[in-house]
Every structure is written in structure tokens, then in C-alpha cells.
Design a protein that fits this description.
Elements: H1 18-22, H2 28-39, H3 43-52, H4 55-75, H5 78-93, E1 96-98, E2 105-107, H6 111-131, H7 138-147, H8 149-154, H9 166-176, H10 184-194, H11 203-219, H12 223-229, H13 236-251, H14 255-258, H15 265-273, H16 281-291
Antiparallel strand pairs: 1-2
Length: about 300
Amino acid sequence: MAATRTNGDPGLFGPDSVTWQAHGDPMMWVAGIRALYLQALHPRAVRGVMQNSDFRRDAWGRLMRTAGFVGTTTYGTTEAAERAGARVRKIHSMLGATDPDTGERYGVDEPALLLWVHCAEIGSYLHVLRRSGFPLTDAHADRYVAEHLHSARLVGLDPASVPANRAELAAYFARVRPELAAGADAHDVDDFLLRPPTHPLLVPARGLLWRRVARLAYDSLPPYAHELYGRSAPPPATVTRRLRATGTLLRLVPARLRWQLPPKHILRAMARLGPGVRPAPYKIGRQAAILDRPGEGAAD
């Protein structure tokens, strides 16, 4: 195995975490789009986005900023992660939204809204990765949710108030379900994700590639989300087959080639800590055999 340097800062998660391995997977992009669909179903949360940014013209930029935050907090140094969190908290503290029906003014950094965004993201990442064939056992999935108490703290949440395992995450979604609705803002997000503005020469590629990815992300949503949006999805077994096929195809692209895309968080982490820390699914699979043995992994 390639050498790992012991004098580098491993960051908040470190190479031994589930997060370190999982976030290097290309299906994270599909999961990120699913998270946008899910987040848009909370009227107060999506209103905060729509009233404080030009989402229709900069949705791609928003997706890239989210990806940059996830990459920095996963693979960056502790200092870089804390700095990214402080920047997000400062921006959120200055932003508010107005309820058009009541005239109520509220901050986008309300704990309930931050919690929804956090859970929609973590739940989507976990759901898409597992359903597309990334080798995560139940024990690893619980570890993944618990590890993201770090990211919850970074955006301003009290970790004690955040789901720390799959059961708590499922209970949270059940509690918040009555608050969800697909209003005009949610449908604006849906329309954009299906038909993002693009150069005329790229319209065919948008239809061939992007729309398929967006539809796959939409199809992977829970049934209640399909009901709220008013668009059906294929049978769950069909969606799972498509997720697995897409995951298999994307994972055939050499990781080194994928990681060359800016801002190169993984390559920077490998330069800092040594090539032995490169994230890979097989490392999760190897750990799963240990965690699933009777009497082992109970601490997870």
C-alpha cells in the first residue's frame, strides 16, 4: 500500500472516515441534484434561496459552491474547513426572507431551516450512494450520518439537535413531512433543473445528458416528493437499476481523471497526506467485513 504521511493535517473527517471514501464517488453529483429537489419542498427554506439569489441564472454556480464546501470540509485541512464554515455562517446571518402571505420577516439561519437543508443533503448523499451500489453497510451508513455532526456544526447547528444515525434521520423526515409543499418556488427549481439555460449549441447535449441526470435524481426522491411535485416516477426497481447502471458507468472513468476537475480537493489531500489516502470504494468494502462480524463494530 502507498505510504501515508503522518505529519499532515487530516482535516475534520480524515482518511479513515466513511465520508472520506464516499465523497470521492462520482454519484455525489446525482445526489446533489436530488438534494436540491428535496430542499425546494420546504417553503420557508426555498423562499430564502429564491429571495436572496438569482437562482434561475446561477443555479449551476450554487451547485458548484455547495460542492466546493463539501469538498473543502471533507478533504481540506481543519483550518480550511473551519474557515469555510465561518464564511457560510456569516453570509447566512446577513440574509432574510419575507413570507408573502403573512409579511413575516425571518432569517435564513433559523435552526429549523438549517436543519432541513442539512438533513436533505446528508439523506440524499447516503440514499443515492447506497442505491447506486456504493458498498455501504447499515453500520457504515450510521457512521456516515454521525460523522456529519461536524458539517452541521460548521453551518451553525447545535450537534445535539441533529440526527446522528439512520433511525433518527428517518424520524426527522417523518416529523417535518407535514410542513412540505410544492409551491411556485419549488416548481421554479424543478423547471430549471429540467431545462437549465444553456448556449444554443449545447441544447442537444442538455437534452441527452443533463436532463437524464436530473430525471434520475428526481426519480430517486421518496414517493411523497413525487406526489407533491405532481410528476410520477418509474417503479422503484426500475429506478434502482438505472442508478446502479449509472454508477457503474461513471465509476469506470479513471478516478485520477475525474479528480483533475477544479478545485481538485482530493488531489490536494493526497499531496498533503500521501497517495495512500486516496478514497476508494474497496476500502469501505474491506472495512464492512469487520464491522458486520458479530460482536464487532458495536461502537458505531
